[in-house]
Amino acid sequence: MSDMSPAPAAATAKPVKLSWYRRLYLRVEALASTKHAVAAMLVVAFVDGSFFPVPPFALLVPMVLAQPQKWVRYAVLGTVASLFGGFFGYWLGTLINAGAVSFLEIDLNMRVQRFGIDSTLGELLGQNFWALALLCSVLPTPFKVVAIGSGMVAVPLDRFLLAAVIGRTVRFFLVAGVMRFAGPTARKWLRV
């Protein structure tokens, strides 16, 4: 027999280089197995709601899988932290609005009179953006975009908060509930 057998595929394969976002996601997910998991989820949910794209569900899913009896607690805590982050993101949006409106000399009081619409630009954005905020709070979209965008277009704070409370509660309870009742098999088809 000759010693010319082919090398195993694993030995010749190059290591896969992960993007910075994927590495960060995996680090956040690894926090779920530490004693600081709840605190980490609260911080990540706040940050996700305000300015940085790290989904809290990377922590929530493994936490619920590890302790399914605490799924409601985790969903409530994640929702509350995300709402505080969303409020901070809304505030950032109002600051951006103030700077952009004055810097770019945008007139939000400009009247729009087309297609049967007679309103100001600011009124149109503020009155209708909350529905988008509600939808995007539930869907797997970055919540910080919704929060900052709501502040930028001057969505009334009460409408933004209503949309955020409904949307984030549905999202956190949906993810935690699916993990609680469907278990690990659901993880492969639930994209978080």
Automatic annotation (TrEMBL):
It comes from the Bacteria. Keywords: Membrane, Transmembrane, Transmembrane helix. InterPro entries: DedA_domain (IPR051311). Coiled coil: none annotated. The chain crosses the membrane at residues 37-59, 71-92, 129-148, 160-182. PANTHER family: ALKALINE PHOSPHATASE LIKE PROTEIN (PTHR42709), DEDA FAMILY PROTEIN (PTHR42709:SF11). This is DedA family protein.
